[in-house]
């Protein structure tokens, strides 16, 4: 008999939708967390922050994320074939640490478009007991769907925030677009936190938690009930979001309040007759955001991750009814309209199957951002269209690293049919981009043929990392 005691329940999934976080406990293995903490403390004292190599240096960290409570929570939110992304980062907040401003994390060296139908999740893990005075991670609940907040300066922010505290072994799963920060450490203790990232590979096909029914209405104090309902129905594998909770108002599409715009757009999406209006509004809001989309910032040289506009987000809820119009805009004169159209098709997922041929054609688009979003859309379809494998294999050789990454993720869907891509994936194991090497290995593992498996094992044996080899113990 399977033990389902660690499965999420409806209330927990709904809390994640509303608040943007969920806290999981693994405190039942205190010796594990004590060992991880002590090793981290030693490494930081002798070597400083070792970045992505924190996991191979302390392999027992994997046991935290293999804990049934964490594993089942990630399965409930991301599906059974979720992946741990290769970027991970240890955070040390020392005594007198000043904390940070409120911010959203960038999707590491990729250009995902932010959307309520989340593809990635952050996991914050404390290896030691963490109290409010130790500078824990702070979070503004319920703001993950907002592009902006009142002020990123904590002294001026009007939104209500909370501190994520807990005993050693506390793991907070956080919507990737949540506003968060490190808070000041006013204690005399070090505060370690490990940040890992997880992602889904397929669109939801049905509940992957202990589910009792989809009949849920968000609470009255939810500022964006239409958005919450859409995410809930999407996670349940249902097409469309049914009837909106709040009434639709066409004029509200252009309100200065982001909350009003979103509720109006999602409300209109329940009416197929509103499709031309939403398409037109999507075009206007997308072009209006062009300057900020392409801007660089001093602390983010690779560019920011834009937030889809209200109409663009709402079009994803229309499902198959919106696909013909989106196929047309996939051929728009402006690259940013084409890229946004591909992203909307990706969010529609299996319901966008009729766009498969148009998406394959768009893989030759002149703009990298269009090609990147097209590959994500192909990965999230119900099945890959005929003739897709050669096109994706060609994309594995694209000069843009973001295209190669998303091509590798797309080929994961093919299984053994992706075997023709093995030579290109072997080249990717030597990619100049450190993350693409991981995605190439992931694709070989998912293809699973003898050729793919042997190639992967040969490469892994060559690249084997010894976690106990340091400058003080070289052999």
In short:
The protein has helices spanning 10-19, 30-46, 54-57, 61-65, 68-78, 225-235, 258-268, 275-288, 290-294, 310-318, 323-329, 335-348, 356-362, 368-380, 388-395, 401-411, 422-428, 434-447, 450-462, and strands at 21-25, 83-93, 120-125, 137-139, 162-164, 170-175, 180-182, 191-199.
Give the helix/strand layout.
Layout: H1 10-19, E1 21-25, H2 30-46, H3 54-57, H4 61-65, H5 68-78, E2 83-93, E3 120-125, E4 137-139, E5 162-164, E6 170-175, E7 180-182, E8 191-199, H6 225-235, H7 258-268, H8 275-288, H9 290-294, H10 310-318, H11 323-329, H12 335-348, H13 356-362, H14 368-380, H15 388-395, H16 401-411, H17 422-428, H18 434-447, H19 450-462
Antiparallel strand pairs: 1-6, 2-8, 3-6, 3-8, 4-5, 4-7
Helix pairs in contact: 6-7, 7-10, 8-10, 10-12, 11-12, 12-14, 13-14, 14-16, 15-16, 16-18, 17-18, 18-19
Features:
Jelly Rolls, 8 strands, three-stranded antiparallel sheet, about 475 residues, alpha+beta
């Amino acid at each position: 008999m399977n033990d389902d005691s660690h499965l999420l329940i409806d209330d927990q999934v709904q809390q994640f939708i509303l608040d943007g976080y969920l806290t999981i406990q693994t405190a039942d293995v205190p010796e594990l967390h004590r060992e991880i903490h002590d090793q981290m403390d030693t490494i930081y004292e002798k070597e400083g922050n070792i970045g992505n190599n924190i996991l191979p240096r302390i392999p027992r960290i994997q046991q935290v994320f293999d804990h049934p409570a964490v594993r089942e929570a990630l399965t409930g939110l991301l599906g059974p074939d979720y992946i741990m992304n290769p970027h991970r980062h240890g955070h040390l907040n020392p005594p007198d640490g000043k904390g940070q401003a409120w911010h959203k994390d960038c999707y590491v060296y990729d250009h995902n478009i932010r959307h309520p139908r989340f593809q990635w999740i952050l996991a914050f893990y404390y290896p030691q007991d963490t109290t409010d005075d130790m500078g824990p991670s702070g979070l503004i609940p319920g703001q993950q769907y907002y592009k902006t907040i009142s002020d990123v300066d904590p002294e001026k922010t009007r939104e209500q925030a909370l501190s994520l505290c807990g005993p050693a072994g506390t793991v907070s799963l956080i919507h990737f677009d949540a506003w968060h920060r490190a808070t000041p450490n006013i204690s005399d203790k070090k505060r370690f936190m490990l940040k890992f990232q997880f992602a889904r590979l397929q669109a939801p096909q049905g509940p992957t938690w202990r589910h009792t029914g989809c009949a849920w209405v968000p609470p009255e104090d939810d500022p964006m009930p239409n958005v919450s309902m859409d995410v809930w129905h999407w996670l349940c594998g249902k097409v469309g979001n049914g009837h909106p909770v709040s009434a639709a108002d066409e004029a509200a599409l252009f309100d200065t309040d982001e909350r009003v715009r979103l509720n109006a757009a999602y409300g209109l999406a329940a009416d197929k007759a509103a499709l031309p209006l939403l398409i037109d509004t999507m075009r206007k809001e997308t072009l209006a955001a062009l300057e900020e989309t392409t801007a660089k910032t001093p602390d983010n040289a690779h560019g920011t991750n834009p937030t889809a506009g209200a109409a663009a987000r709402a079009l994803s809820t229309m499902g198959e009814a919106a696909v013909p119009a989106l196929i047309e805009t996939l051929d728009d004169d402006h690259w940013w309209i084409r890229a946004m159209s591909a992203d909307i098709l990706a969010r529609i997922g299996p319901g966008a199957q009729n766009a498969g041929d148009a998406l394959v054609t768009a893989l030759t688009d002149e703009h990298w951002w269009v090609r990147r979003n097209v590959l994500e859309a192909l990965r999230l379809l119900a099945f890959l269209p005929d003739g897709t494998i050669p096109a994706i294999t060609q994309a594995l050789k694209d000069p843009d690293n973001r295209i190669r990454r998303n091509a590798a993720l797309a080929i994961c869907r093919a299984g053994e049919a992706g075997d023709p891509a093995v030579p290109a994936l072997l080249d990717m194991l030597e990619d100049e981009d450190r993350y693409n090497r991981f995605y190439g290995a992931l694709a070989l593992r998912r293809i699973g043929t003898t050729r793919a498996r042997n190639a992967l094992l040969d490469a892994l044996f060559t690249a084997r990392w010894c976690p106990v080899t340091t400058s003080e113990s070289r052999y």
